[in-house]
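Renewal narrative, Specific Aim 1. Our central claim is that a sequence can be written position by position from structural information alone. The example that follows is taken directly from our test logs and has not been curated for this report. It begins with the structure tokens describing the chain, in the order in which they were read.
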């Protein structure tokens, strides 16, 4: 039997079945409580530090500022161990109709060697970069960093040596449960990309498309206009889906790669 046939027969990871998804949501709901958010590793600021890296082609940025996806490529080029999960457990579990199931997470670091080989395989840097390119072309937004929840999902002990690049869709990814956390905790564990900003201009007609597509519930329609609230993680989906082109992303940080390394590297080793 071919590897593809074996992959197609694999069920979602046990942690991502329907019961597991309910458990994840419950954890993040309770993780919004002041005491529990520090006790649970998934919402503890010392164990999780990730950012979304928007893929919008029309991000306004200075000539010296790298594109967000280049931050992922920077990590790929520095990592000693790289592996790709053969399918997205979230999309397979929810039978996603909008994004390809076969684009799974990319992992870096020594602990990636411990992920079960039935649905994970080690890759070269070139193949990892091609996987990133494929994901971006499929409009999947990378979220990268130290994500403690993945140690649980993939049954890997937390040694601080597993860096996640999850290629998220707004409809299936467990990151949508982050909407239950308060903005102050989101700012500590799901950090907006350094130097990135978003604004709604005068052409907004308040159609509500962005509100429906915002997986974290950060957008409301007020007085016939979109208002982006403090829970926004700057993933760029609202700008991508806005039919009026009224939402603009701006990135101004020539030291984007260095700033990202300075923040994330203390939480996880990839060498």
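The sequence written for that structure reads:
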């Amino acid at each position: 039997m071919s590897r593809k046939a074996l992959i197609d027969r694999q069920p979602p990871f046990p942690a991502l079945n329907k019961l597991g998804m309910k458990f994840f949501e419950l954890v993040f709901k309770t993780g919004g409580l002041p005491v529990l958010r520090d006790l649970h590793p998934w919402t503890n600021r010392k164990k999780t530090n990730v950012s979304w890296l928007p893929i919008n082609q029309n991000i306004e940025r200075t000539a010296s500022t790298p594109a967000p996806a280049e931050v992922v490529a920077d990590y790929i080029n520095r990592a000693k161990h790289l592996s790709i999960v053969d399918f997205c457990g979230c999309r397979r579990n929810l039978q996603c109709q909008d994004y390809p199931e076969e684009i799974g997470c990319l992992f870096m670091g020594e602990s990636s060697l411990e992920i079960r080989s039935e649905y994970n395989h080690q890759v070269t840097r070139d193949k990892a970069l091609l996987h990133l390119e494929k994901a971006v072309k499929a409009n999947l937004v990378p979220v990268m960093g130290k994500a403690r929840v993945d140690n649980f999902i993939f049954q890997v002990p937390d040694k601080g040596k597993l860096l996640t690049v999850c290629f998220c869709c707004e409809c299936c990814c467990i990151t949508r449960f982050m909407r239950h956390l308060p903005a102050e905790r989101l700012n500590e564990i799901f950090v907006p990309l350094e130097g990135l900003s978003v604004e709604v201009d005068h052409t907004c007609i308040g159609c509500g498309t962005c509100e429906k597509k915002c997986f974290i519930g950060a957008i409301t329609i007020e007085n016939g206009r979109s208002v982006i609230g403090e829970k926004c993680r700057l993933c760029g989906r609202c700008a991508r889906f806005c039919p009026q082109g009224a939402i603009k992303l701006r990135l101004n940080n020539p030291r984007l790669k260095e700033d990202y390394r300075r923040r994330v590297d203390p939480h996880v080793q990839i060498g």
